[in-house]
Every structure is written in structure tokens, then in C-alpha cells.
Amino acid sequence: MDMDAFFASVEELRHPELKGTPVVIGGGGDPTKRGVVSTANYEARKFGVHSGMPLRTAVKLCPHAVFLPVDYGEYSRVSKIIKGILREISPVMQDVGIDEAFLDISGIPGSPEEISKRIKDAIRSKTGLSCSIGIAPNKLVAKIASDIQKPDGLTIVEEGRARDALKDLAVRKLWGVGPKTEEHLKKMGINTIGDLAARTEEELAGHFGPSHGGYLYEASRGIDDSPLVTEWTPKSTSRETTFQEDISDWQELARVLAELVRRVVSDMKSDGFKGRTVTVKVRYSDFKTQTRSITLQEATDSVEVLRKAAFEAFGRFDLKGKKVRLLGFRMSGFEEKVAQ
Questions:
Q1: CA within 20 to 30 Å of 189's CA: 32, 66, 162, 291, which one?
Q2: H-helix or E-strand containing 290?
Q3: Largest CA distance in the chain
Q4: Given the residues 74, 100, 312, 336, the one annotated as active site
Q5: Which residues does 63 contact at the CB level (< 8 Å), separation at least 6?
Q6: Which CATH code is given to the segment(s) 2-72?
């Protein structure tokens, strides 16, 4: 289940006058400043606007779009309602993000069409939003299927039909095929998943190594045996800030770092975790990025202890004569769950 242009759709509910207008959500909502697109509605996507794109690029492509800031609080509130609906339909659920999830419906009464209608009707009734659903024998094909008929789509791929259903889709639709892999595949004359499926496992292993090559061979055939992960422990949590203007003032950087530590510790406590490894990230004005880490003897969620460790790590950067574009803080090495 994948919500349709989730952030933008929530904003359209709050602002009905935006319906039919290109809407772009990202950063602070000011396209003249630094920030990236979190999502865009389908009207904006027609102009080539997509998630991850700099806001300054988006406004050039679609200058008449309405740009709005990200409101994670509201999106999280609506997401909890949606996830509650899904758990009522199937308790075997893998939550994979604020706007999507995998459900095991193999033991639920009713046809796939009937179950999908129940999900769609319940989400629309309680939130006013639409979603797209892909149903297949495994997670890989179900995920791809959910994107085939957006918005408000339903695509069902029956057992034994995966390879045929995928063959005409762009190879980038596969998990694990990013820009670099896609470029390499295109040089090999591979543009669709069907093109990829026509190659031997030995050939793919020769280009990408036995592990990734073997994965591409199986994925192109719709083969996936990964289970639903119903309980998940985060490996890390982080926060970062991109400055509107590159700065070199140490006191300002220190103030921002202290605030990032406070927010990360708040996130850890709300999730019930303590951590041992502190990492500070700095990206300079020339886009060079460095990190410095410190591992504590014991896991903690003490803001005072972690702030001290963060500043110790921060002191290991040579900032002389340099300006900072981005500052980040990450906690990892989660070892124990805090009793709630």
C-alpha cells in the first residue's frame, strides 16, 4: 500500500483551493532558498518536478507552482490513522515509511479485489485520501505493482506472471538499481527489466559481482523471498541542518549542533532507545563532506553526556578558513531498550 503524493494530498485537504494546482512540498517552502523537494502532486510532476530535486530547480521547471513547507507533525498524525486502519485489516504488517506498508493478506477472507476495496474505502473515509495497492506473491513485485497505476490504482500480479508483468518496465523500477547501476546497464544495452531478464547470471555477476549480479538476475524475474519484518530496531537516528548561507561563525555552529543533539535525543527517547556512537557531519561550501565519530563506553540517552561527546567530535574538524554548508548529528550503536 502506497499513499498517493502523500504530503501534497494532505495539504490539499487542508487547503481545498489548491486542488488542480501544481503543489510542491519541501524545506521551508521558499524556492529561492536552499532545500529539496519532499514530494510534489501530480500536476507538478507533469513539469518534471520530483522528490529529491533542489527547490531552486523545481521553481524553474514550474514557476507557477504553490510551494509549501514540510509539516511532519501533521503528516505523522495522518500516517498513524492510516497505519491503524491497515493493522485492523492485517496484523502482519511491515511499516516501511510514513506513507507505505506491506501487508500479508494470505490468511484474510475475501478476494484480493475485495480486500483492496476495504483498505481504500477505510482510508478514504477516515482521511479523505487515496492510495495505490499492488498485490503479488512477494514484496518486490508488490512494491513495483503499487506504482503502475497511480493514483488510486490497483495492480494484481498472479503467481507465475511476475516476469511478464515486469518485462516492459524501466530497469530503474527495481530495488537496488540506482543512477550508477542504471547507467552501467544502459551501456550494456539494458533499458527494461525484460532486457535484464534476458541476460545470464554469469554475465551479470561478471559486471556487478556475484552478490549484486545474482540479485539482479533473480529480481528481473520477479524472484524475491524476503520476509515481512513486523518488528524493527533502528540502527541509527540523525538530524541535520543545511544553512541558507554558508557560515564560519563557531558560536553559531555550536548553537546549531547543541540543538541537533537535543532533537536527536528526543527522537531516541520517544522510540525507547539509548546509543553509544556519536557522529558529527560537516559539509563545506565546496561540498566536501567529513565525519568524526566517538564511541562511548556505555549506551546513554543523556542530553548532557551526548552534547559533550558531540562537541568533542566537532573539535576534531579543522574549520580554519572554511565555511560550512551543512551540519549534522547522528546517534548509532543502539544497545538496549529503555523501560517505558
A1: 162
A2: strand 289-300
A3: 67
A4: 100
A5: none
A6: 3.40.1170.60
Q: What is the CA radius of gyration of the chain?
A: 23
Give the H or E element holding residue 278: strand 275-284
Q: Is 2 helix (H, G, I), strand (E, B) or coil?
A: strand
**Segments making up each domain of the chain, as ranges:** 2-72, 73-156, 162-219, 236-332
What is the C-alpha to C-alpha distance for residues 192 and 217, in angstroms, rounded to an integer? 13
**Across-strand partners of 149?**
none
**Band of the pLDDT at 234, cuts 50, 70, 90?**
confident
C-alpha grid cell, residue 288: 566536501
- Beta bridge pairs of residue 290: 282
Instruction: Check pLDDT > 70 for residue 269.
Output: yes
Q: Residue 91: exposed, middle, or buried by beta-carbon count in 10 A (0-12, 13-18, 19+)?
A: exposed
3-class DSSP state of 52: coil
> Is it true that domain 236-332 has CATH number 3.10.400.10?
no
Task: Tell me, yes or no, if 252 is annotated catalytic.
Answer: no
**What are 214-224's pLDDT values in tens digits?**
999 999 999 99
Task: State the cell numbers at 119.
Answer: 483498505
**Torsion angle, alpha carbons of 105, 107, 108, 111, to 10:** 70
73-156: CATH class: alpha beta
Residue with cell 524556492: 31
CATH class of 162-219: mainly alpha
How far apart are alpha carbons 235 and 239 in whole angstroms? 14
Tens-place pLDDT, residues 279-309: 999 999 998 999 999 999 999 999 999 999 9
